[in-house]
Write a structure and sequence with these properties.
Domain Ig-like: 46-123, 128-213
Strand content: over 45%
Structural class: mainly beta
Number of strands: 20
InterPro entries: ICAM_VCAM, Ig-like_dom, Ig-like_dom_sf, Ig-like_fold, Ig_sub, Ig_sub2
Oligomer: single chain
Transmembrane segments: 245-270
Protein name: ICAM5 protein
GO molecular function: integrin binding
Length: 312
């Protein structure tokens, strides 16, 4: 009888795992009885189930790498896992997880009665990496033209995107925020465009500088991080101007007073006609070999910065 169970007669039948346990055997005749305890062990081939060996695993880059897979069997099976296509054992617990660990592993459980196989798919999550920005069609934009800035980054889960850029009313962001489009570029669109990619494991940023050519900003106002100020370029006198100066010299005999008056008149004429006025970027002018000086004047409107340029 099974230990604790009712006595029964046993015949020949197929053994199952449920037959394992302790049995009490009792022999009886008219003179008495004898008993003996017997422990029955049932051996069987290995099997690997979902509970002890999930078919899908999620690892995080930088954490210890370990692929444990439990199997049932008697005797206790030995379990080994190898990445398909590599022919190598799964990484032990000591090395850290890298993106190269992602893939499908095959786990094999073996004992004296046979073996069992199970495939395990490993995904590796990691913080955003390789953030890249691209300006289309070019980072040097003509005023009034349209352009877009695209941001891409690797990461698992897929990252979300946020932007830090020159504020302007002509910005349009894509549905997933990975790009920003600018229609009719102006001075306000000039500057540094920074994209930040973020997921639950971290974040990373990248930047690109956009330049808008042909900018004509207002005096003393900023555009895209740069200060645009009024500048004056004083080229050498043209040939007509030189002729007028020669004429002035030849009239010296008319008297000093008359000559001085004519000199003042000619100087005012040259200043009003030969001086090239326009809008220049202070940063560009300061780094130019044509820049001679940078000065500041006070007017009713406030402070006006001027750049005196020399003719090459």
């Amino acid at each position: 009888a099974r230990d604790g169970g009712a006595p029964r007669a046993w015949g020949s039948r197929a053994v199952s795992r449920a037959d394992a346990g302790r049995y009490i055997c009792r022999a009886t005749n008219k003179h008495g009885s004898a008993t003996r305890s017997v422990v029955v062990t049932v051996e069987y081939e290995p099997s690997i189930g979902e509970t002890g060996c999930p078919a899908r695993r999620l690892w995080v880059e930088g954490t210890p790498a370990e692929l444990a897979c439990a199997a049932s069997g008697n005797p206790s099976p030995r379990v080994a896992c190898a990445k398909l296509g590599d022919g190598q054992d799964a990484p032990p617990a000591s090395p850290n997880v890298t993106r190269a660990h992602a893939g499908t592993y095959q786990c094999r459980a073996t004992n004296t009665h046979g073996s069992a196989l199970r495939n395990v798919t490993v995904a590796v999550e990691y913080s955003p990496a390789a953030v890249s920005l691209r300006v289309l069609p070019s980072a040097n934009v003509s005023r009034g033209a349209s352009f877009s800035v695209e941001c891409r980054a690797e990461g698992l889960p897929p990252p979300t995107y946020s932007w830090a850029l020159p504020p302007a009313p002509n910005l349009r962001f894509a549905a997933d925020n990975h790009s920003v489009a600018v229609a009719g570029a102006a001075a306000a669109n000039r500057g540094l465009y920074t994209c930040t990619a973020t997921n639950r494991h971290g974040q990373r940023a990248g930047s690109v500088m956009v330049r808008v050519d042909g900018e004509m900003g207002c005096t003393g106002k900023t555009g895209g991080g740069g200060l645009f100020v009024t500048a004056a370029a004083s080229p050498a006198p043209s040939r007509p101007a030189e002729s007028r100066l020669a004429l002035l010299a030849s009239l010296g005999s008319l008297g000093a007073v008359t000559a001085v008056g004519l000199a003042v008149a000619v100087g005012y004429y040259l200043k009003s006609t030969a001086c090239k006025k326009g809008e220049y970027n202070v940063r560009d002018a300061e780094g130019s070999s044509d820049a001679a000086c940078l000065h500041r004047q006070r007017h009713d409107r406030g402070e006006v910065y001027g750049i005196q340029l020399t003719q090459p």
